[in-house]
Amino acid sequence: MSPAETQPTAPDEPAEKELPLLELRDGLSEVVETDDALTEIVEAFQGGTGPVAVDAERASGYRYSHRAYLVQLRRVGSGSALVDPIPFGDLSSLGDAIVDTEWIIHAANQDLACLAEVGMVPRQVFDTELAGRLLGYPKVGLASLVSEVLGYRMRKEHSAADWSTRPLPAPWLVYAALDVEMLIELRDAIEQELRREGKWEWAEQEFAAILDAPPREPRPDPWRRTSGMHRVRNRRSLAVVRALWEARDQIAESADISPGRVLPDAAIVEAASAMPADRDTLQKLTAFKGRGAHRHMRTWWEAVDHARRLPDSELPKQGPRYDGPPPARAWADRDPDAAARLSAARSAVAEIAEAHRLPTENLLAPDTIRRLAWSPPKDVTLDVVTSFLREHHARQWQIALTADVLTDAMTSEAPAKPLD
């Protein structure tokens, strides 16, 4: 029995047995990779009705870039489409054809950037993952929500595939098409549940915030995110990490290869810890015995040697740059009053989140709570706290739920609980 021949299970009536979602109701369509085929798809989706399910596949872990290597769409009256953006470079004609309708995207923050890169920018979104969080589902992956809400078991065996592969194997294409097969039904069922729980306006504000969010700025000192950095103990070793990370990044970007495939993080950390005195010692390290590491051994040694010779004044600082408050675990010693405020604020927000079946971080960003508690306004009033929350991008529904209790917490004189 195909999904089209069954009625999706209502969110409040879990299916007794999952139905495997193994086949596409319309069959597998040809990948769109010619101008004529793209024109046909643009016309088909322009003539459809209702929202459009949209997904994109990247080659994370294989390529340096975060570009989309496949775009999947589905719309009532239009069917499904698999579009290869690589031959076109720009899919703005397709984006324009559906720009005035709602786009259903699961985990929109993951796909919007790569879609925008090919000219597809929505004006309205429905994020099924974020909606699932607002509803308190413990697991909000697409397969989990489709199972919990609609009662279908999705295939996920190709989620980590190299989508830059050409031609794409047919089983991968079926998997990709299935990702949009049930999105429209999932969206409709979740909207019903949001309305029943009085959370629909919350969701609308959250979806609008996704589109209004400014572009993410590059992280300062991205090399500090190297896995295993806790083993690097001094500034000279940090300089080795930085030098190797930057050398690796240049090679990876030039070749469009995932940095970890050029040189693993483990090799960078091992070199920083061992501080080899010459190239021969470097290439004898365990993590440098792979073919990829040997291929660029001259570059790696030059990076290490450069870091070894840097004057102390040019060595990186021990801790990363950060414009926010210090780690909460240090507050009790540095500022007991701030620790008391943070403890009271966290407890109050957690209680509200539990009452509304929300993850605490979706009720209010933890960083916003920490900043307010560490440096509260001079005159703490409800209006002042409300303004602070708004300046830190809290949505109106979040402010309505938390401003009162945060105002009280900022004037709390209760003893601080131990902070993590």
UniProtKB/TrEMBL annotation:
InterPro entries: 3'-5'_exonuclease_dom, Exo_C, HRDC-like_sf, HRDC_dom, HRDC_dom_sf, RNase_D-like, RNaseH-like_sf, RNaseH_sf. Residues 311-336 are annotated as: Disordered. This is Ribonuclease D. PANTHER family: RIBONUCLEASE D (PTHR47649:SF1). Residues 234-314 form the HRDC domain. GO terms for biological process: nucleobase-containing compound metabolic process. Signal peptide: none annotated. It comes from Kribbella kalugense.
